[in-house]
Amino acid sequence: xxxxxxxxxxxxxxxxxxxxxxxxxxxxxxxxxxxxxxxxxxxxxxxxxxxxxxxxxxxxxxxxxxxxxxxxxxxxxxxxxxxxxxxxxxxxxxxxxxxxxxxxxxxxxxxxxxxxxxxxxxxxxxxxxxxxxxxxxxxxxxxxxxxxxxxxxxxxxxxxxxxxxxxxxxxxxxxxxxxxxxxxxxxxxxxxxxxxxxxxxxxxxxxxxxxxxxxxxxxxxxxx
Length: 224
Ligand SMILES: Nc1ncnc2c1ncn2[C@@H]1O[C@H](COP(=O)(O)OP(=O)(O)OP(=O)(O)O)[C@@H](O)[C@H]1O
Fold this sequence. Notes:
Elements: E1 2-10, E2 16-25, E3 30-34, H1 41-48, E4 56-61, E5 64-65, H2 71-77, E6 78-81, H3 93-104, H4 109-122, H5 138-150, E7 156-160, H6 168-183, E8 187-191, H7 195-201, E9 204-209, E10 212-218
Helix pairs in contact: 3-4, 3-5, 4-5, 5-6
This protein binds adenosine-5'-triphosphate.
Residues 11, 17, 35, 37-43, 191 line the site of adenosine-5'-triphosphate (ATP).
């Protein structure tokens, strides 16, 4: 599904963020990127939807180099959830999702609202559809953000520390949601500092250190 082939990235100041990363994420698989701060995890994640452009090697999505795909099409196939929850502050939960559907085209206002409601239901937020982000907890906001990233039915979901802004008691809800999405076959790459979270949602753990992928192992084998 996603293949990293000798992926390298050097910043303008000459520092290398990624060095010869090779790896493959199969369809329906959840891979957690683990490793120390500054190791290159977010950079690697962002090469998939081209928020970061690689300067060596390539990233292949379903057989096609991502640079050969039109950016809007690529971003529709690859959903992205940021660490800092970035909902539109002046829009209710349901409108946050409906706006993305409307922008994508093809749906009437009523249809996009209906589909948005369906997604809020899937993430357990149906009863808060009319709430503004400020009236929601961090975990609830993150669930709306995940609904927003999922509503165009992307083949792949990228998540950059989806739980780092959350209180520990809210992490479980997001973990359960991601497990549900995984069970439905969504391919995911998730950057996380939390080993327990990684083991809880991922099939495989990739250890990133100094811009290199130094280990790739089944999550169930990871030490508790
Ligand atoms: N746009 C940029 N320009 C220059 N350097 C950058 C840029 N983005 C990231 N870096 C640097 O690249 C390195 C890798 O950063 P990255 O964010 O990928 O690490 P990370 O493993 O995700 O870290 P963390 O766990 O702290 O989020 C870091 O040294 C960082 O300072």
